[in-house]
Fold:
Amino acid sequence: MHAIRPIGMNQSRLLEGSIRWFFVVIAAVVVAAGWGLGLRFGDLMPGEGGWRLVREFFAAALVPAFDYEAASVPEDACPFWIKVARAALETVRIAAAGMAVSLLVGIPLGFAASRHVCGSRRSFCLRRRIVCIVVALMRSVHELVWAVVFLAAVGLSEIVAVIAIAIPYAGTFAKIFAEMLDESPDEPADALAAIGASRHQLAVLARLPGVIGEVVAYAFYRFECAVRSSAVLGFLGIPTIGYHLRLSFEETHFREVWSYLIILLVIVVLLDHWSHALRRRLV
Amino acid sequence: MRAPEKMDEQFRLEKVDVSYREVAALRQVDLSIARGELVGLVGPSGSGKTTLLRCLNAMVTPSSGGVRILGVDAAGLGENKLRILRARIGFVAQDLGLVPNLRVVQNVVAGGFGRQGFFGALRSSMVPREREKQRVHAILQRVGIGEKIFARTDRLSGGQQQRVAVARALYQSPEAILADEPVSSVDPARARDTISLLTELAREEGMTLVMSLHNLELAREFFPRLIGLRGGRLVFDAPARALPDGAFDQLFSLTEEELLG
Structure:
């Protein structure tokens, strides 16, 4: 009966009103939180020494180090750029291993957490609920916390970093993957269900292809996150970029710090390019 | 008190009622379709054509009444028995239900999923065996697009994609094919091609074909038997030639209450 109507006066006013309320509420939350925490804007102003440090730090960005900044370096030390490259490689290796494990675990969990893999006739599916709870537990603890726990248990080892990344990443991947499957186009699955395909066949062969591009893009984005996590885990002593970053920072070798930060940026940009290339082929 | 089953009967509906939530989609439908019949299903949108077709492959469970499919009582069948039954019946959906970013061969071998386990289907889809490829190629040639076997499905024209959907149904080696307005999305010339292809294939193979369609001229031209539906009830079920000219008008004209309602 009715053609699609453009948004009328009433709707647009309503929209404006809700946008205004959105900002009012956000502002109220910020003020309330700041007051609750006892924040003062004055604390943000650095002191005399602080300003000098800030200036030095950002000045160093223009001339990142290609060699050690320290006056004396041990005889057997490798060239600085090799050290940076090794740290970068270590960071990527741990991130890749963690990501691989998280995919191995997260993909099956994602299928199990999807609405479509459950019996369609039952509204309540116990297995799916259990999987969802497990997935929530995995991702509710940050990788740094997992790492601290495992470090205490097994000591300093790269496997600690890999597992610490893999657990929350598997949980997050499973959740998002399940949601993507839930939202995938229904047409192919409906047509194949009508000719006797099983629920598992439908999930993998009719639904997954419809969202494969998004899944790959998301996996790459998570890989990027894993590289950052892997770098940060270096603060705990695992020899990734974070480890060296911290040592250089403590000795105020800011130019070295920037070398590490720049290599991190390069890794992320390269990953992004790879992701785009792969996605173009799949979608 | 069931009527004795005829030897060559493939589908039988007895006093079938289907309702979604509170709304009745089919009311007291009685129907019998014999092997090899070509049946056109006509009626305005919302008249229950899709629901009727979905009863024929047990995708819809009637709220009351009996459904026999290929000699099997569909009521109370478990999931595996249902799969086996559905695998014997080809289906061409209105939206075709092809996976757009897969190759044609992958969409066609999907016709075999109903007879395969999970890993068998995965293997056929990812790395089709040589004999599977040959069979797909032979079927595609039969529907006139043999050279498109490795093309991406979404690169094909609308008419070619319909042929892929038909090929998938043929890959099932079905005893009957159900088609739900498979030609509603293409121009009349393409629609004619596809309907003529399907009816020809059905005749050659001795398959039953039940197709719902909007276009009444095409329905009359290609289907010896026509079933008219309106508001979930059978209005007529007769040989196309025996239908009086007014039959279609009656099917599509609005009643007074519908106009006011």
